[in-house]
Amino acid sequence: MSNGAPKMTDIKINTDNLYREEAFTDLTFATIRRLLPVKLDGSPDDSREPIFTGLTQLMSPNGPIPVQCLIEGAKSLSEAAEKLPAAIEKTVQAMIAEAKEMERQEASKIVIPGQ
After folding, report:
1. Between β-strands 30-38 and 63-70, what pairing exists: parallel, antiparallel or unpaired?
2. Is residue 7 part of a domain?
3. Is the pTM of this model over 0.85?
4. Going by C-beta distance under 8 Å and a sequence separation of 6 or more, which residues neighbour residue 60?
5. Cβ partners under 8 Å of residue 32, min gap 6
6. Domain containing 55: what range?
7. What is the Rg, in whole angstroms, of the alpha carbon atoms belonging to the chain?
8. Rounded distance, CA 21 to CA 38, Å?
9. Rounded CA separation 32/22 (Å)
10. Per-residue pLDDT tens digits for 52-63
């Protein structure tokens, strides 16, 4: 059965890039995740900075659209909360630009009869 191709279960974990995840939510609009760097034994890795990400949902005519973003430059939870709206806006604008580009590419395809 094996043809030499890697199996989907051949997963290699980068043990030098592990994080512990904490989630904070206002139970209304947004969730902020703080990813704290850890060593392989689970102890804090003070040589790396924490990473903050944001998550929210936008309503569309077709239902909710999840939006997840990196909150750049945040060093604390309070900074992440302050920077979240701008990070979400930046991500939404990038999603809109990407959708417009895909639409433009689709519209510019040459249609050949019989395909």
Report:
1. unpaired
2. no
3. no
4. none
5. 23, 24, 25, 52, 53, 54, 55, 71, 77, 80, 81, 84
6. 18-107
7. 20
8. 10
9. 8
10. 999 999 998 999
